[in-house]
Amino acid sequence: MKSIYDIIIKPVITEASIANIAERKYTFCVATDANKIEIKNAAEQIFGVKVEKVTTINMKSKPKRVGYNYGYTSEWKKAIVKITADSKTIEFFDSLM
């Protein structure tokens, strides 16, 4: 049994994710084996919001180079959580706007 804090790892802060905050969509890096139901329950318990929809995307690894060394980035899973209109916002993201 995973803890709710093991499911949502960290928020994703990019230009696109900050633009989605106006539509009440919040982006998180989540555990690769987590499903949409687990992500929804974790977001509702951690942030005290009502989740309307969860969209998940598996992010593939990309080739990267530092000097002469070649390698790949890690594969990870991204979740976009849309909260209902009558729910409160997530305070962490309010400071970014």
Main attributes of the structure:
single chain, 97 residues, alpha+beta, 4-stranded antiparallel β-sheet, two-stranded antiparallel ribbon, globular
Number of strands: 6
Number of helices: 4
Average pLDDT over all residues: 93
Helix-strand topology string: HEHEHEEEEH
- Tell me the fraction of residues in β-strands, as a range: 35-45%
**Separation of termini?**
36 Å
Radius of gyration of CA atoms, rounded to a whole number: 15 Å
Biggest sheet overview: 4 strands, antiparallel
Principal-axis shape equals: globular
Query: Can you tell me the residue ranges where pLDDT is under 50 for at least 5 consecutive residues?
Result: none
| Overall helicity | 25-40%
Oligomer: single chain
Overall SS class: alpha+beta
Side by side, the strands of the main sheet go 1-2-6-3
